[in-house]
Amino acid sequence: MARRTELPKYTVPSLTVEDGAAVAAVLQKRLNALNDLALTLKHIHWNVTGPHFIAVHEMIDPQVDAVRAMVDAIAERIATLGVAPVGTPGALVADRTWDDYSIGRAGAIEHLGALDEVYVGVIEDHRKAADDTEDLDTVTNDLLIGHLHELELFHWFVRAHLESAGGELSTHGATTEKAAARSAGKAAKQAEDR
């Protein structure tokens, strides 16, 4: 995505147009990440298989709806700051710093293992965005903190499927979606074989 060189003609009261543009740039990255997350969640919803299918299938749709609402709130905040939000697929792909979701049709636990990694990345970047806006714009900061509450809750829902009775995550030590999916699947298979 081309960098914006023009400042907005206006922004919200008490912010300079420079600060409004800076906050909008932070939000644009979150808009891209959340649009990608909503699509990834829907992909998982369609491609999950196995004995945990219905539980995961039905758990994912409310997350999709909530993330889509976050996308809308962020886009509207960008517009409020006097900048045009960009929600096109090409702009998202051109600007993203992460790879496309790498798991196709797979078991529910494998998808949840991969989704654990996805949520880690989204939440870490959302926290950084909240930190970056804390001194610039309290309204945007509050918006991002509210999103973090929901994102961390959804992440807990995912991790509850991956956690042992002793509190260990089956994805512990994995750093990629595929490794987390393999690790979660292996742990689930071992539990079934007992």
Q: How many H/I helices?
A: 6
Which radius of gyration do the C-alpha atoms yield? 18 Å
Return the string of H and E elements.
HEHHEHHH
Major sheet: order of its strands?
1-2
At CATH level 3, the topology is: Ferritin
CATH class: Mainly Alpha
State the fourth-level CATH superfamily: Ferritin, core subunit, four-helix bundle
**Tally of structural domains:** 1
Number of strands: 2
Characterize the biggest β-sheet. 2 strands, parallel
Which architecture per CATH?
Answer: Up-down Bundle
Q: So what's the overall shape?
A: elongated
Give the helix/strand class: mainly alpha
Helix coverage percent? 55-70%
What portion of the residues fall into strands of 2 or more residues? under 5%
Low-confidence stretches: none
Record keyword descriptors for this entry.
194 residues; mainly alpha; Ferritin; two-stranded parallel ribbon; 6 helices; 2% strand; elongated; DPS_DNA-bd; oxidoreductase activity, acting on metal ions
Any overview of this molecule?
It is a single chain. By secondary structure, the chain is mainly α. The chain has a single domain (17-193), classed as Ferritin (Up-down Bundle), CATH 1.20.1260.10. 69% of the residues lie in helices and 2% in strands. It has six helices and two strands; from the N terminus they run αβααβααα. A two-stranded parallel ribbon has the order 1-2. Helix 1 runs antiparallel to helix 4 (108-133). The chain is elongated and about 65 Å long. The N and C termini lie far apart (51 Å). The model has no long low-confidence stretch (mean pLDDT 94).
